Amino acid sequence: MRVRTARRSGQIGVAEAVALASRVRASGGSVVFTNGVFDLLHPGHVHYLRDARALGDTLIVGLNADRSVRRIKGPDRPINPEGERAEVLLGLAAVDAVVVFDDDTPHGIIAAIQPDVLVKGADWGPNDIVGRDVVEARGGRVVRIPLTPGQSTTGLLQRAQKPSR
Predict the structure, then answer these.
(1) Is the pLDDT of residue 131 over 70?
(2) CA dist 97 to 18, 20, 77, Å?
(3) Is residue 12 classed as helix, strand or coil in its secondary structure?
(4) When you count CB atoms within 10 A of the terminal residue's CB, does the N or C end of the chain come out lower?
C-alpha cells in the first residue's frame, strides 16, 4: 500500500495523520511511526527510514518543529527550516507522511496516531523510547534499528566546518 500525503508545505497535521492511520488499519495495513530532527539528511537517515518502512505498510515521520529543535539542540540548529526538512523527507520513497510537532517529545502525537510499530535508532535505550507505553499497551511493538556506522549529522557538520586542504 503506497500512500503519499502532503500539503503544499510538505506536511500534514495531527488530525490528518490520525485519519491516515485509521484508513491504513481499516484496509488491513499496519502503521509505522518514527520521529526526529532529520536536519541534514545523510545515508544513515535513508537506511534508517527504509528499514523502518519495511516494518509495515505506511511510515509516518514525526518531525521536530524548528522551535523544538532549538530547545533540544541549541540556538544554531536546525540548519534547514521545518518546511524544507519535511519536503526532503517526503521525497524519499520510504516516507508516506510527515507531521511536524512542537513539543520536546512525540508522546502526544504517538498517543493520537496509535502506531502499530514504533521505531527508534539503537542508540536509544529500550526504556528511554518515548511512546513505548502507548504502543505496547495496544499490542504494538517497538523496534530499535541499528545505526549506520560513520553516519551522523554531527559528523557531517564537523566535516563541513573543517578547512579544506
Answers:
(1) yes
(2) 11, 9, 23
(3) strand
(4) C
Q: Given this model, what pLDDT does residue 7 score?
A: 44
Query: Can you spell out the DSSP letters for 86-133?
Result: HHHHHTSTT--EEEEE-SSSSHHHHHHH--SEEEEETTS-GGG-TTHH
What is 14-159's CATH number, 3.40.30.10, 3.40.50.620, 3.40.50.2300, 1.10.238.10?
Answer: 3.40.50.620
The whole-angstrom separation of Cα 61 and Cα 143 is 15
Residue that is written with C-alpha cell 532549538 in the block: 70
| Structural contact between residues 92 and 47, judged by C-beta atoms closer than 8 angstroms | no
Return the residue matching grid coordinates 520521529: 35
Phi-psi category of 5—alpha, beta or left, where left has phi over 0 and alpha has psi -120 to 50? beta
Count of C-beta atoms within a 10 Å radius of residue 7: 12
Q: Where are the domains of the chain?
A: 14-159
Q: Which of 51-60, 69-78, 128-137 has the lowest mean pLDDT?
A: 69-78
Nearest CA-CA partner of 106 in 131, 141, 142? 131
Task: List, in sequence order, every residue forming a beta bridge with 63; answer none if it has no partner.
Answer: 36, 100
Q: Which three cell numbers stand for residue 161?
A: 566546518
Segments of the chain assigned E as strands: 31-36, 58-64, 97-101, 117-121, 141-145
